[in-house]
Structures are given as structure tokens and as C-alpha cells.
Write a structure and sequence with these properties.
The protein has 6 helices and 5 strands, in the order αααβαββαββα. The chain is α+β, with helices and mostly antiparallel strands. Helices cover 42% and strands 12% of the residues. It is elongated.
């Protein structure tokens, strides 16, 4: 017997009214889903924000750190010393050192300020005060340094907090150098000039200050102890002569060393 062939079923045609009704139903469903998603997102944001506020009120959290952190410089701000370097000092250095390539002119790359706090082993509050004062001087949060090895004679164990340091670059570096040269160094007691022998052979200069009160950012009346600091000015000079010429042009007051020895 021959199999009966199935005839294709005819699809029912929809009227224009039915098509419009289906489109309206789909649009209403999309709008309802979007409203639900928006409501869920707002609820999640409120829940996640609540613990953060509680944490900032209870223990300070990140909010207090941001409030206490130094504010950034305004857009387009150029420090006074940086402007003088670009307009005058770089040209004078190129002439003095006979440098034709502008990229080879010596410049300051960074400044590192450090404090050694050996007495903080017995007096822990001393470290907190020193970090606070160093941060005020530099205009940037100081980092606590830990001992790399143990020394039994000094009752020092590896990992103990015994110092603080801060590294300055960019505008903060230029601002600090300006204050160091024009305000802090002239306030040093019995100052007779900086030692020009503080270079390391590669154009980087190292100097020390015995008191933190030479900086106006530290209130001398509220100081409980005097703390010295080491300042390293890292340059791209490459040798001592170029480094000395750069710092002299910046205004560092070096003393004149005696070149002639007295005859016996």
C-alpha cells in the first residue's frame, strides 16, 4: 500500500491588531525587568556602603587616612625652583659644562629623607612622633623602616621598627628643595656652609641635619626630643663635578675649602 503523503499545515496569519498587542506586551515586560534590576542595584549599593561608614567611624579606616593625606597640587602648578631651573639654570649649566645636548644636562631625580631611630626600641612613642614630624616636613606620608638583621649588642631583632624614610619626586621634591635651601639651612646654628665632600662619586649628594626644628613645619615649642635626619639628593650628573655645579646653581650654600696647605 502506498503511504499517504502528509500535507504541510498552513500557518495561521495574525491580524495587525494581534501583532500590535504582542509588541506592547514585550515592551511592558522589558520595562518591568529594567525597573527590577535598577531597584536591586540601588539596594546592593546601600548595603555595601553601610559597613564602610561604620568602619570609618569605629577605627578610622581609609576615610581618615585620605583626610589626613596631603592634598595634591592644583592642575598646571609649577614650583618656583623648577621654573627657575627650566628657564635659567639649565641654560647656565649647559654653558658652564659645555654640554650641547639638552638631555645630558644634569638634573635632580629624587630626594630621600631618612631618620634613624635606635632609641625607639625602648621608647615606641618616639617612632610615632618622628613619623608624624617627618611627614609634615616632607609633605608626604613617611614609611616605617624595619631592621634587616638582628644585633644582640643593641638588643635589636630582625623586623623591629627602627627608622622612617620618605622619597620625594616631582613637585614635592622641588618644593622641599626650595624650603631646604632658602629656609631650613640658614636656620642651622653656627652655619658656615655645607661640606662639598658629601658626594658619592656619581653626582649624588648626602647631607645631615642634627635637629628637625630648622623646618618651619615643626612646632619647636611642642618638640619633646631632638631628632636628626639624613638627606640624599639623587641627580643624573654622573660625577661629582657636574653634581656640584648643579647644586650650586640651585643655590646650595657650599663652603670654600682651603686648597693650599700651610708650609711646616
Amino acid at each position: 500500500m502506498a503511504k499517504e503523503e502528509k500535507k504541510p499545515e498552513k500557518k495561521a496569519t495574525k491580524t495587525p491588531e494581534q501583532i500590535e498587542a504582542e509588541k506592547a506586551a514585550k515592551a511592558a515586560k522589558k520595562a518591568e525587568m529594567a525597573a527590577k534590576a535598577k531597584e536591586a542595584a540601588s539596594t546592593t549599593t546601600e548595603v555595601s556602603a553601610a559597613p564602610a561608614e561604620g568602619k570609618s567611624k569605629k577605627g578610622g579606616g581609609k576615610k581618615r587616612e585620605e583626610d589626613s593625606a596631603p592634598q595634591p597640587f592644583p592642575e598646571g602648578y609649577v614650583p618656583r625652583l623648577r621654573k627657575r631651573y627650566d628657564e635659567q639654570i639649565s641654560t647656565a649649566l649647559a654653558t658652564e659644562l659645555n654640554i650641547k645636548n639638552k638631555m645630558a644636562i644634569p638634573k635632580v631625580e629624587k630626594v630621600v629623607i631618612s631618620m634613624g631611630l635606635g632609641k625607639a626600641i625602648a621608647e615606641k612613642p618616639r617612632l610615632e612622633v618622628a613619623v608624624k614630624e617627618l611627614s609634615a616636613i616632607a609633605g608626604q606620608k613617611a614609611v616605617i623602616c624595619k631592621a634587616k638583621k638582628s644585633v644582640s649588642n643593641f638588643k635589636l631583632r630582625e623586623g623591629m621598627e627602627i627608622g622612617a624614610k620618605v622619597t620625594l619626586r616631582g613637585n614635592r621634591m622641588w618644593e622641599f628643595l626650595d624650603r631646604l635651601i632658602n629656609l631650613a639651612v640658614p636656620r642651622v646654628k653656627d652655619f658656615r656652609g655645607l661640606n662639598p665632600k658629601g658626594f658619592d662619586g656619581r653626582g649624588n649628594y648626602n647631607m645631615g641635619l642634627t635637629e628637625q626644628t630648622v623646618f618651619s613645619e615643626v612646632d619647636s615649642a611642642a618638640v619633646t626630643f631632638h631628632q636628626g635626619m639624613n638627606i640624599t639628593i639623587v641627580t643624573s650628573a654622573g660625577d661629582n663635578l657636574k653634581g656640584l655645579a648643579l647644586l650650586k646653581q640651585l643655590g646650595m650654600p657650599f663652603r670654600q675649602e682651603e686648597t693650599a696647605k700651610k708650609a711646616g
